[in-house]
Amino acid sequence: MMLVLVGVAAASPAEAQGSPEKRIAFVVGNAAYKAGALPTPANDAGLIAQTLQAAGFDVIGARDLDQNGMRDAMRDFLTKANASGPDTVVFVYLAGYGLQYQGDNYFVPVDAQIANATDVPVQAIRVSDLTKSLSAINNRGSIVVLDAARANPFVQSNQPLAGGLALVDPDANQLIAFNAAPGTVAPQEAGPYGSYAHALAEMIRVGGLSLDDVFDRTRLRVGDLTKGAEISWDASKFKNAFNFFDRGPNAPAAAVSSAEDVANRTKPIRDFGERDAYFAALDRDTLQGYEDFLAAYPNDSMVRRVRAIVAARREAITWRETWIADTPEAYWSYLRRYPRGPHVWDARRRLEHFEAALEPPPSFTVIEYDVPPPPPPEVVYVDRPVLYFDDADFGYAPPPPVVFLAPPPPDFVVLAPPEPSVDVYVLPAPVFVPVPAWVEPPRDIAPPENNVIFNNIHNTVVNNTTVINNNTTVNENGAAPAAPGLTTGQKLAGAAVIAGAGAAALHVALPPSVQKKAAVLQKQNPAAAVKAAPGTAPAVAPSAQPQGGNAAAHVLPGANGQPLPAGAKLPANPGTAPTKQGQPPQATPNAVHNPAVATQPAQQGTNANAHALPGANGQPLPATGKLPANAGAAQTKQAQQPQATPNAGAHALPGAKGQPLPAAGNAAAVKGQNQVAKTPPPQAAPSGKPNPVAAAPKPNAHAPAAPAVVARTPAKPKAIPSNQARINSQPHVAAAPPRQANPAPAQPRPAPHVVAQARPPAPKPQAQPKPQPQPKVVQQQVRKPPPPPPQKPPEKKKCGAPGLPACH
């Protein structure tokens, strides 16, 4: 009975906690704009996506989406959010160009062409459509971040758009954040990451911070990184408690106690020292807080900067209330307060819509605003379309004191740039910086499966290689330790790539609609859709060679979960028979044996020469008229005739089963066979038909190009290629290019066979008669030496016949 009670008591807290929290995120970084590329948004999106993965979010995202791709991706995510259930927290991060138009904010796709203000709602994505759809979902809350307040190249006319983003009110249970305060823009940054994304990623990784604290500290860090040139903004109606990470029991003591932190946020601004008062106002980020600073310290060096912040905020509030009223009287009221303000043309466009006078009439009903009119010193800051805080007249903000913001972690001060993206639409994967040891994964959440970043926020275990605090421990497989000097994130990335799990582990999944689009692009133009990943074997360029044999024979290293071979090492050639002299076949050094394809022909290795054509890279061309190589054939004697065999592989077509095609007019020797010193006598044509079309040598081959017409005389002895095992003791003689010999006069010959050229810039063949319809017969006759003289009639018997003496 006691055991039953204990079980009930233990189950009660779990029931009280309810279902575990699910976390999903949608991240987009648009950088490759037709109107002008941006250096950081794609990297910023990759950094935020990776940070959210570490916090247990199931992240989908993409980069450089056009309008159709953006709308489809948003639809995919909203479908996922609706199906995720009521215990879900949603995070959206959009980096790129953002615009405001008539009170709404728009996110600009990379293909947008916006010449006039009226093009904005047609060419861009209205953000409120997304936020309202999210607020209609019954979940634990949503967080929407727009890293998009930038000086834009659109609408270069005499009726410009207002700068930056418009002030908005978040919907219920929602937080909205901008990289720059409403009506202001962030300065252009060279990268590799923007200051806002860098600061936000740092604060997300701090354990135990509430959602409001994360964005308040992000604002202080952004001001610190930009010396006051950028001031971020957020507004929240998020009602549920939320932490990205938890603070462990072994966490170091905070520089500021909880009681002191509360006091700093409630103490009047005038009670702070002159230096700390600015950061107290910036931390609160309210119009009242900034005005209190101006009243307490009117001669401080930060007065101009704070006055500009107040001017931009007051104008943004005024325009927001004007747009909500949306009447001619409201727009006349705005024009009377700000006759040259940033929203003048928005007000006039709305007045045109109402067919009202564009200028305020002498008398009308002025609407009442929640903020007083701007004092004269403020007007100068808003009599412009765009407000920049990086003006030297505002002064440079000092670093924040420790009582408001601790210094950044040493390993998060300078972040290494990410590797270039591998595939179209895929976000860059930055080098992962492990979170501090005292930061714990959030409790009571349901992280997605196979989230390598979340499972290894401190230590990394990938492919039996454990990375602990920048030290590598080699486990069961005896893998070599990582190179010294690498960070944990670099070891994680390398181990994941070696495991064949790079895309799944370190890259963010594409939305389903974007996946389909990427697959179509890759089929249409594989060379443009797929880029070679740095540090990996280059992809084999498509050629004119016909591909034959089993597809498994051309499987790339690391595909289908197979381990990658060591760098610059070729896989072994399974199936090669022993040599005649009893020597075992010479295996490629340090080859990796793959049992899954042990019966297949040799696979492509990481070495580009594994499938080099004969004559490429300075190798001598083989003699004319030879049959293609047959991997796995048994050894023959030096002068032995090739025998017909029932095995179909003995007469495989050139290029079949993954074998490289021979060069024009030439064929590779059988691996492991001795070279035949002289041309064998004629024999019956084999049952297998050779391929009459051969590929021309590569343009960069150093050997001379083979002649277009096949030689009719016996070929000279062929040199053994340097990458082939030499079996006999014959000296290695470099073979000269095949030469066209005089035809034998013994019998008439068929028309010479013109070899098709596979790729330019091989020499053009001379005009020749059309090839015979039976290439097999032509090639066999071409390779024959002059026929033997006709046999003499049998001599008359000289004995044993009637009338002749007996034979002895």
TrEMBL record:
Residues 760-774 have a biased composition (Pro residues). SUPFAM superfamilies: Caspase-like. Residues 629-650, 690-719, 733-744 have a biased composition (Low complexity). GO terms for biological process: proteolysis. Residues 537-808 are annotated as: Disordered. InterPro entries: Caspase-like_dom_sf, Caspase-related_regulators, Pept_C14_caspase, Pept_C14_p20. Transmembrane segments: none annotated. Residues 576-591, 600-609, 721-731 have a biased composition (Polar residues). This is Uncharacterized protein, contains caspase domain. The lineage of its organism: Bacteria, Pseudomonadati, Pseudomonadota, Alphaproteobacteria, Hyphomicrobiales.
